[in-house]
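Below is a filled-in request sheet from our internal design queue. Each sheet records the structural input a requester submitted and the sequence that came back. We keep these sheets so that new team members can see what a complete request looks like end to end.

REQUESTER: design group, bay 2
PRIORITY: normal
MODE: inverse folding
CHAIN LENGTH: 235
BACKBONE (tokenized):
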């Protein structure tokens, strides 16, 4: 049945057409009928950058106004008072050398984001090869290496989402759930696109954004009309 539903919806999506955001979100909402679970709504942006060059890296973070719709599990590497602050802010896992050891020896990775105080980075660096490929390595450029652990934990819980361009020049990120009202998804979409445009690197030449698409976990990709987006995607 799911296969038939997917085909019926995929037949409604013209692969050669760029849809207005409102129409695209209508199709996204319709695709939520494919499954009984609340599907993720995912944004894919192809950029005119070559991430192999240092001056063409794109990364940053954005607070999604309507949140992510996901219960984000946050791990914090901290000691003493900073550990207590992290716990009070709602961190799910807090530890120091013991947490590093648990990840090293047990392969523990039951969290979605990680924060570390600067004094812990010597220890955390030992598990960089484990955390890095999974996008879990604390990074000062993203503000996840900080003494203000409470504030960052609260942001991550409230709907902050980090992004980073992949080797193919594409950024993938979730912007909510199919159960969200269309207006909430639009708010998150516009906030994410604006943040990615603001993160345009110095080495990017020509039109920065090549194309944008939306999809659900089980639904087809839907191209978005760039001409109606603001700020200008080629800025």
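RETURNED SEQUENCE:
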């Amino acid at each position: 049945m799911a296969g038939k539903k997917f085909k019926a919806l995929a037949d409604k999506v013209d692969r050669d057409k760029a849809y207005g955001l409102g129409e695209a979100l209508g199709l996204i909402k319709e695709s939520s009928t494919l499954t009984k679970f609340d599907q993720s709504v995912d944004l894919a942006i192809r950029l005119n950058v070559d991430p192999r060059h240092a001056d063409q890296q794109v990364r940053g973070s954005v607070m999604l106004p309507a949140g992510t719709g996901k219960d984000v599990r946050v791990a914090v590497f901290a000691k003493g008072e900073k550990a207590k602050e992290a716990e009070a802010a709602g961190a799910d896992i807090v530890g120091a050398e013991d947490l590093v050891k648990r990840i090293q020896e047990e392969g523990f990775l039951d969290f979605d984001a990680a924060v570390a105080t600067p004094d812990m980075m010597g220890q955390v660096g030992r598990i960089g090869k484990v955390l890095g490929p999974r996008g879990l390595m604390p990074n000062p450029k993203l503000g996840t290496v900080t003494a203000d652990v409470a504030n960052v934990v609260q942001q991550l819980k409230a709907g902050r989402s980090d992004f980073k361009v992949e080797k193919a020049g594409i950024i993938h990120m979730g912007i909510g759930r199919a159960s969200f009202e269309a207006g909430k998804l639009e708010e998150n979409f516009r906030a994410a696109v604006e943040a990615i445009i603001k993160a345009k690197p110095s080495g990017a030449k020509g039109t920065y954004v090549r194309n944008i698409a939306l999809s659900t976990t089980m639904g087809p990709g839907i191209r978005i009309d760039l001409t109606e987006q603001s700020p200008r995607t080629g800025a």
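SHEET NOTES:
- The helical segments are 2-12, 21-31, 80-89, 97-106, 121-124, 128-131, 149-158, 182-198.
- Residues 83 and 94 are 6 Å apart (CA to CA).
FILED BY: M.R.
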